[in-house]
Amino acid sequence: MKRLNRTIIVFVVLLMAGAASLTTLEQGSSLEIMSNPTNWLIVISAFFLVIAFMATFEALDAMKRMVRGQQGSEASEVEEEESDWVDGLLHKLTDATPVENEEEVETDHEYDGIRELDNNLPPWWLAGFYISIAFAIIYLMRFHVLGTAPLSQEELKIELAEAEAAKEEYLKTAANLVDESNVEALSDESRLLAGADIFMKNCAVCHANDGGGGVGPNLTDPYWIHGNDIKDVFKTVKYGVPAKGMIPWQDQLSASEMQEVASYILTLQGTTPADPKEPQGDLVEEKVEAPAEDSAVDSTATEVVEEAAASL
Q1: What does the domain layout of the chain look like in residue ranges?
Q2: Nearest-5° Cα angle at 139, 137 to 144
Q3: DSSP H stretches of helix in the chain
Q4: Distance of alpha carbon 72 from its chain centroid, rounded?
Q5: Residue 277: which of 226, 222, 224, 218 has the closest Cα?
Q6: Distance between CA atoms of 108 and 127, rounded to whole angstroms?
Q7: Residue 148: pLDDT band by 50, 70, 90 thresholds?
Q8: Which of 124, 166, 260, 262 could form a cystine bridge with 233, CB 3.0-4.6 A?
Q9: What is the pLDDT of residues 171-188, one digit of tens each?
Q10: In 3D, which of 188, 182, 178, 207 has the Cα closest to residue 265?
Protein backbone atom coordinates (compact mmCIF):
# COMPACT_ATOMS: atom_id res chain seq x y z
CA MET A 1 0.00 0.00 0.00
CA LYS A 2 2.89 2.37 0.69
CA ARG A 3 4.23 1.80 -2.79
CA LEU A 4 0.79 2.58 -4.22
CA ASN A 5 0.50 5.79 -2.21
CA ARG A 6 3.97 6.91 -3.23
CA THR A 7 3.27 6.13 -6.88
CA ILE A 8 0.11 8.23 -6.81
CA ILE A 9 2.00 11.11 -5.20
CA VAL A 10 4.77 10.92 -7.78
CA PHE A 11 2.20 10.79 -10.61
CA VAL A 12 0.39 13.86 -9.27
CA VAL A 13 3.69 15.74 -8.91
CA LEU A 14 4.64 14.88 -12.48
CA LEU A 15 1.18 15.96 -13.67
CA MET A 16 1.56 19.29 -11.88
CA ALA A 17 5.00 19.76 -13.43
CA GLY A 18 3.53 19.07 -16.86
CA ALA A 19 0.74 21.61 -16.25
CA ALA A 20 3.31 24.19 -15.13
CA SER A 21 5.37 23.59 -18.27
CA LEU A 22 2.33 24.54 -20.38
CA THR A 23 2.65 28.10 -19.11
CA THR A 24 5.98 28.40 -20.93
CA LEU A 25 4.30 27.74 -24.28
CA GLU A 26 2.47 30.27 -26.41
CA GLN A 27 -1.11 30.91 -25.34
CA GLY A 28 -2.58 29.41 -28.49
CA SER A 29 -0.50 26.23 -28.19
CA SER A 30 -1.25 25.72 -24.49
CA LEU A 31 -4.99 26.28 -25.02
CA GLU A 32 -4.96 23.82 -27.91
CA ILE A 33 -3.29 21.19 -25.73
CA MET A 34 -5.64 21.80 -22.80
CA SER A 35 -8.79 21.79 -24.94
CA ASN A 36 -7.88 18.59 -26.79
CA PRO A 37 -10.01 15.80 -25.23
CA THR A 38 -7.58 13.16 -26.50
CA ASN A 39 -4.82 14.51 -24.25
CA TRP A 40 -7.09 14.36 -21.21
CA LEU A 41 -8.15 10.83 -22.12
CA ILE A 42 -4.50 9.76 -22.28
CA VAL A 43 -3.71 11.32 -18.89
CA ILE A 44 -6.75 9.77 -17.18
CA SER A 45 -6.10 6.39 -18.77
CA ALA A 46 -2.44 6.51 -17.70
CA PHE A 47 -3.47 7.41 -14.15
CA PHE A 48 -5.83 4.46 -13.78
CA LEU A 49 -3.39 2.12 -15.51
CA VAL A 50 -0.69 3.07 -13.00
CA ILE A 51 -3.10 2.51 -10.11
CA ALA A 52 -4.22 -0.85 -11.51
CA PHE A 53 -0.63 -1.95 -12.12
CA MET A 54 0.57 -0.96 -8.65
CA ALA A 55 -2.50 -2.48 -6.95
CA THR A 56 -1.88 -5.74 -8.78
CA PHE A 57 1.79 -5.61 -7.83
CA GLU A 58 0.90 -4.99 -4.17
CA ALA A 59 -1.56 -7.90 -4.16
CA LEU A 60 0.98 -10.28 -5.68
CA ASP A 61 3.64 -9.09 -3.25
CA ALA A 62 1.29 -9.65 -0.31
CA MET A 63 0.49 -13.15 -1.52
CA LYS A 64 4.21 -13.89 -1.86
CA ARG A 65 4.89 -12.78 1.71
CA MET A 66 1.96 -14.81 2.99
CA VAL A 67 3.19 -17.95 1.25
CA ARG A 68 6.69 -17.48 2.54
CA GLY A 69 5.53 -16.75 6.06
CA GLN A 70 8.99 -15.54 6.93
CA GLN A 71 8.85 -12.70 9.42
CA GLY A 72 12.52 -11.91 9.11
CA SER A 73 12.33 -11.65 5.38
CA GLU A 74 9.25 -9.45 5.64
CA ALA A 75 10.96 -7.17 8.16
CA SER A 76 13.95 -6.75 5.89
CA GLU A 77 11.65 -5.88 2.99
CA VAL A 78 9.89 -3.29 5.13
CA GLU A 79 13.22 -1.73 6.12
CA GLU A 80 14.26 -1.67 2.50
CA GLU A 81 10.95 -0.11 1.58
CA GLU A 82 11.35 2.61 4.23
CA SER A 83 14.74 3.49 2.80
CA ASP A 84 13.24 3.99 -0.64
CA TRP A 85 14.32 7.22 -2.33
CA VAL A 86 10.73 8.42 -2.58
CA ASP A 87 10.34 8.16 1.19
CA GLY A 88 13.56 10.08 1.55
CA LEU A 89 12.31 12.77 -0.80
CA LEU A 90 8.99 13.08 1.05
CA HIS A 91 10.82 13.30 4.37
CA LYS A 92 13.00 16.10 3.03
CA LEU A 93 9.95 17.96 1.78
CA THR A 94 7.93 17.63 5.00
CA ASP A 95 10.62 17.27 7.69
CA ALA A 96 7.99 15.38 9.66
CA THR A 97 8.96 13.77 12.98
CA PRO A 98 8.24 10.03 13.10
CA VAL A 99 5.48 8.98 15.47
CA GLU A 100 7.88 6.99 17.64
CA ASN A 101 10.01 10.13 18.16
CA GLU A 102 7.23 12.58 18.99
CA GLU A 103 8.50 12.88 22.57
CA GLU A 104 11.47 14.83 21.24
CA VAL A 105 9.25 17.66 19.94
CA GLU A 106 6.51 17.46 22.59
CA THR A 107 5.71 20.64 24.57
CA ASP A 108 4.17 21.05 28.01
CA HIS A 109 0.81 21.99 26.53
CA GLU A 110 -1.92 19.38 26.60
CA TYR A 111 -5.65 20.00 26.11
CA ASP A 112 -8.25 17.27 26.60
CA GLY A 113 -5.64 14.62 25.97
CA ILE A 114 -4.37 16.33 22.82
CA ARG A 115 -0.64 17.00 23.01
CA GLU A 116 0.95 19.98 21.32
CA LEU A 117 4.06 19.27 19.27
CA ASP A 118 6.73 21.73 18.17
CA ASN A 119 7.32 20.43 14.66
CA ASN A 120 9.42 22.35 12.17
CA LEU A 121 7.67 24.12 9.34
CA PRO A 122 7.68 21.96 6.18
CA PRO A 123 10.63 22.86 3.94
CA TRP A 124 8.34 23.00 0.89
CA TRP A 125 6.23 25.63 2.63
CA LEU A 126 9.28 27.65 3.67
CA ALA A 127 10.64 27.45 0.13
CA GLY A 128 7.35 28.73 -1.27
CA PHE A 129 7.32 31.54 1.30
CA TYR A 130 10.85 32.68 0.47
CA ILE A 131 10.19 32.40 -3.28
CA SER A 132 7.06 34.56 -2.93
CA ILE A 133 9.13 37.24 -1.14
CA ALA A 134 11.77 37.17 -3.88
CA PHE A 135 9.05 37.30 -6.56
CA ALA A 136 7.39 40.29 -4.88
CA ILE A 137 10.69 42.20 -4.80
CA ILE A 138 11.48 41.42 -8.44
CA TYR A 139 7.92 42.30 -9.50
CA LEU A 140 8.04 45.62 -7.63
CA MET A 141 11.39 46.59 -9.12
CA ARG A 142 10.52 45.55 -12.67
CA PHE A 143 6.98 46.93 -12.97
CA HIS A 144 6.83 49.86 -10.55
CA VAL A 145 10.40 51.11 -10.04
CA LEU A 146 12.37 50.46 -13.25
CA GLY A 147 9.32 50.24 -15.52
CA THR A 148 10.97 47.69 -17.83
CA ALA A 149 7.70 45.81 -18.34
CA PRO A 150 4.15 47.08 -18.96
CA LEU A 151 1.53 47.04 -16.23
CA SER A 152 -1.71 45.14 -16.75
CA GLN A 153 -3.56 48.17 -18.17
CA GLU A 154 -0.72 48.99 -20.55
CA GLU A 155 -0.47 45.35 -21.56
CA LEU A 156 -4.19 45.36 -22.29
CA LYS A 157 -3.80 48.41 -24.54
CA ILE A 158 -0.93 46.72 -26.39
CA GLU A 159 -2.94 43.53 -26.89
CA LEU A 160 -5.96 45.53 -28.07
CA ALA A 161 -3.78 47.36 -30.59
CA GLU A 162 -2.36 44.05 -31.80
CA ALA A 163 -5.87 42.61 -32.07
CA GLU A 164 -7.02 45.66 -34.05
CA ALA A 165 -4.06 45.29 -36.42
CA ALA A 166 -4.84 41.60 -36.84
CA LYS A 167 -8.47 42.50 -37.51
CA GLU A 168 -7.48 45.03 -40.18
CA GLU A 169 -5.20 42.45 -41.79
CA TYR A 170 -8.03 39.94 -41.80
CA LEU A 171 -10.49 42.42 -43.27
CA LYS A 172 -8.12 43.03 -46.18
CA THR A 173 -8.57 39.41 -47.21
CA ALA A 174 -12.16 39.09 -45.98
CA ALA A 175 -13.30 41.98 -48.15
CA ASN A 176 -13.30 39.70 -51.18
CA LEU A 177 -15.56 37.17 -49.45
CA VAL A 178 -18.69 39.28 -50.04
CA ASP A 179 -21.25 38.36 -52.66
CA GLU A 180 -24.80 39.36 -53.58
CA SER A 181 -26.19 37.44 -50.59
CA ASN A 182 -24.26 39.21 -47.81
CA VAL A 183 -23.02 42.50 -49.31
CA GLU A 184 -23.70 45.67 -47.33
CA ALA A 185 -23.55 49.33 -48.31
CA LEU A 186 -20.28 50.97 -47.32
CA SER A 187 -20.04 54.20 -45.34
CA ASP A 188 -16.28 54.63 -45.18
CA GLU A 189 -15.34 57.72 -47.20
CA SER A 190 -12.07 56.27 -48.48
CA ARG A 191 -13.83 53.23 -49.90
CA LEU A 192 -16.56 55.38 -51.44
CA LEU A 193 -13.86 57.44 -53.15
CA ALA A 194 -12.35 54.19 -54.40
CA GLY A 195 -15.78 53.26 -55.73
CA ALA A 196 -16.05 56.65 -57.43
CA ASP A 197 -12.70 56.10 -59.09
CA ILE A 198 -13.83 52.69 -60.37
CA PHE A 199 -17.07 54.26 -61.63
CA MET A 200 -15.22 56.99 -63.52
CA LYS A 201 -12.86 54.51 -65.17
CA ASN A 202 -15.37 51.81 -66.09
CA CYS A 203 -18.97 53.03 -65.81
CA ALA A 204 -18.96 56.72 -66.71
CA VAL A 205 -18.65 55.98 -70.41
CA CYS A 206 -22.22 54.61 -70.38
CA HIS A 207 -23.74 56.36 -67.35
CA ALA A 208 -21.94 59.75 -67.53
CA ASN A 209 -19.51 61.10 -64.95
CA ASP A 210 -22.32 62.43 -62.77
CA GLY A 211 -24.51 59.32 -63.20
CA GLY A 212 -27.05 61.14 -65.36
CA GLY A 213 -27.09 58.38 -67.96
CA GLY A 214 -26.16 57.95 -71.59
CA VAL A 215 -26.11 54.57 -73.24
CA GLY A 216 -26.97 53.27 -69.79
CA PRO A 217 -29.83 54.42 -67.57
CA ASN A 218 -29.89 57.43 -65.27
CA LEU A 219 -28.60 56.44 -61.81
CA THR A 220 -29.73 59.60 -59.99
CA ASP A 221 -33.52 59.37 -60.35
CA PRO A 222 -35.88 57.10 -58.38
CA TYR A 223 -36.53 54.79 -61.35
CA TRP A 224 -34.80 51.42 -61.33
CA ILE A 225 -34.77 48.56 -63.83
CA HIS A 226 -33.12 45.84 -61.75
CA GLY A 227 -33.75 47.04 -58.17
CA ASN A 228 -32.28 49.72 -55.94
CA ASP A 229 -31.07 47.62 -52.99
CA ILE A 230 -27.32 47.25 -52.45
CA LYS A 231 -27.66 43.55 -53.20
CA ASP A 232 -29.50 44.30 -56.45
CA VAL A 233 -26.91 46.85 -57.57
CA PHE A 234 -24.03 44.54 -56.64
CA LYS A 235 -25.64 41.68 -58.57
CA THR A 236 -26.16 43.88 -61.63
CA VAL A 237 -22.53 45.00 -61.57
CA LYS A 238 -21.29 41.47 -61.01
CA TYR A 239 -23.30 39.63 -63.67
CA GLY A 240 -24.06 42.58 -65.96
CA VAL A 241 -27.01 42.80 -68.35
CA PRO A 242 -25.66 41.23 -71.57
CA ALA A 243 -29.01 41.59 -73.36
CA LYS A 244 -28.76 45.38 -73.03
CA GLY A 245 -25.03 45.68 -73.64
CA MET A 246 -23.74 45.81 -70.05
CA ILE A 247 -20.89 43.36 -69.57
CA PRO A 248 -20.39 41.36 -66.35
CA TRP A 249 -17.60 42.83 -64.22
CA GLN A 250 -16.92 39.82 -61.99
CA ASP A 251 -13.87 38.84 -64.05
CA GLN A 252 -12.39 42.35 -64.07
CA LEU A 253 -13.23 43.63 -60.59
CA SER A 254 -12.72 41.95 -57.24
CA ALA A 255 -15.64 41.45 -54.88
CA SER A 256 -14.49 44.35 -52.69
CA GLU A 257 -14.21 46.63 -55.73
CA MET A 258 -17.72 45.70 -56.88
CA GLN A 259 -18.97 46.46 -53.36
CA GLU A 260 -17.26 49.85 -53.46
CA VAL A 261 -18.67 50.86 -56.84
CA ALA A 262 -22.16 49.57 -55.95
CA SER A 263 -22.10 51.58 -52.71
CA TYR A 264 -20.94 54.65 -54.61
CA ILE A 265 -23.77 54.28 -57.15
CA LEU A 266 -26.29 54.48 -54.30
CA THR A 267 -24.81 57.82 -53.21
CA LEU A 268 -25.78 59.26 -56.59
CA GLN A 269 -29.47 59.00 -55.69
CA GLY A 270 -31.06 62.45 -55.42
CA THR A 271 -28.15 64.33 -57.01
CA THR A 272 -28.71 66.66 -59.97
CA PRO A 273 -26.82 65.63 -63.13
CA ALA A 274 -26.02 68.12 -65.90
CA ASP A 275 -27.96 66.29 -68.61
CA PRO A 276 -30.23 63.67 -67.06
CA LYS A 277 -31.61 60.87 -69.20
CA GLU A 278 -35.34 60.13 -69.23
CA PRO A 279 -36.54 57.75 -66.51
CA GLN A 280 -36.36 54.01 -67.18
CA GLY A 281 -37.73 51.14 -65.15
CA ASP A 282 -40.05 51.21 -62.16
CA LEU A 283 -40.56 54.09 -59.77
CA VAL A 284 -39.34 53.29 -56.27
CA GLU A 285 -41.30 55.39 -53.80
CA GLU A 286 -38.95 54.88 -50.85
CA LYS A 287 -35.76 56.78 -51.33
CA VAL A 288 -32.63 54.74 -50.84
CA GLU A 289 -30.53 56.32 -48.11
CA ALA A 290 -26.95 56.81 -49.11
CA PRO A 291 -24.53 54.94 -46.82
CA ALA A 292 -22.51 58.08 -46.15
CA GLU A 293 -21.94 59.09 -42.55
CA ASP A 294 -23.67 62.49 -42.96
CA SER A 295 -27.40 62.80 -43.40
CA ALA A 296 -26.91 65.29 -46.26
CA VAL A 297 -26.90 62.79 -49.10
CA ASP A 298 -26.79 65.32 -51.92
CA SER A 299 -23.77 67.23 -50.66
CA THR A 300 -21.78 64.09 -49.81
CA ALA A 301 -22.47 62.45 -53.14
CA THR A 302 -21.67 65.67 -54.99
CA GLU A 303 -18.35 66.04 -53.16
CA VAL A 304 -17.40 62.45 -54.01
CA VAL A 305 -18.33 62.97 -57.66
CA GLU A 306 -16.41 66.24 -57.87
CA GLU A 307 -13.30 64.73 -56.26
CA ALA A 308 -13.42 61.72 -58.57
CA ALA A 309 -13.98 63.91 -61.63
CA ALA A 310 -11.12 66.20 -60.65
CA SER A 311 -8.76 63.24 -60.52
CA LEU A 312 -9.41 62.40 -64.20
Answers
A1: 120-150, 183-310
A2: 100
A3: 2-22, 27-35, 37-68, 71-82, 85-94, 123-139, 152-174, 189-198, 204-207, 230-239, 255-267, 297-310
A4: 64
A5: 218
A6: 29
A7: confident
A8: 262
A9: 777 667 788 888 899 999
A10: 207
Beta bridge partners of 283: 223
Check whether 301 has a pLDDT greater than 80.
no
- Report how far residue 172's alpha carbon sits from residue 147's, in angstroms, rounded to the nearest whole number: 36
Distance CA 290, CA 197 (A): 17
Q: Of the ranges 3-12, 24-33, 135-144, 179-188, which one carries the lowest mean pLDDT score? A: 3-12
Domain 183-310: state its class. mainly alpha
Pick the closest to residue 195 from 177, 213, 211, 216 (CA basis): 211
What b-and-e string marks burial along 90-102, b requiring 16 or more CB atoms within 10 Å of the CB? beeeeeebeeeee
Q: Is 258 exposed, middle or buried (0-12, 13-18, 19+ CB in 10 A)?
A: buried
Yes or no: say if 258 and 238 are a contact pair by the CB < 8 Å rule.
yes
